[in-house]
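Records of this kind hold a single protein each, on a pair of labelled lines. With that in mind, the following record should read easily:
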Amino acid sequence: MLIPELHIPTDFITDDHIGREKLLAYFANLKKTKTLIFALCIQGRIKVTINLVQYNIGSGTVIAIPTNSFIQVVKASEDIQMRAILFSLRFIHEAHLDKSIIDTFYIINEHPLLPLPGKIFNIYTDTFSLLGKIYRDAPFLFSRATLKSILEALLQGFTELSQRKALLKVAPPDKQSFIFRQFVRLVQEHHVQQHQVQFYAAVMGLKPTQLCHIVKKKSEGQTAMEIINNVLILNARTLLRATSTPVKDIALNLGFNNASFFNKFFKKHVGMTPQQFRNAEK
């Protein structure tokens, strides 16, 4: 059993009325995105985990979440109001984006949050609202060519605003950054079957010591094994919270040979047994 995935049935979806109830309905439990998400926080605050990093987000912030990301809303204020635009993974693959646009995915992978100045925030608010109105009242206006232009504009705008605010240096990823992101993607794909660093190093054509050195440097101190374990724990917590699957079956589904070893592993990292965690969440 894998982490639940977030798909959309069409190329493009907008939603300009996202409150606390809807937000938690989708993301209270860990999800893996099969969409590219642009979200705008209009008011309130949320605490969200994106690819193992926790962010506190307030009003006036635009968020870009790449496909194949892990996302979970940890906490949302009662007055939270957000707007969102989503593009399907299939559309992104078929859009044949220019290389300069593809390079912007590096930026949103590294820096998914962008606080907006007041006037720019108002422009984004109006833009998200307009796209939402067209989506509801005249969806035939969204041809694939139009959607590609909207996607490129959102990606390019995110990049240019980041440069203007000097929040980050926009540069092509260096080799070690590429290796680190490749490792994280592989862990997201294979953590159920493969728990050892040696497997990922072999797939990437590296020695385990090389991979461990790069991961620790690029993750600001986390080891490769810690990242694998963190993904396993995220998956386990989600399955314990969101399903009634017996603990022994969750252990097997996550690649553990027996429930006893899984119990010890979970307690070491969470501070309680899987069953205690499940009971505490009720």
Summary: Residues 136 and 268 are 49 Å apart (CA to CA).
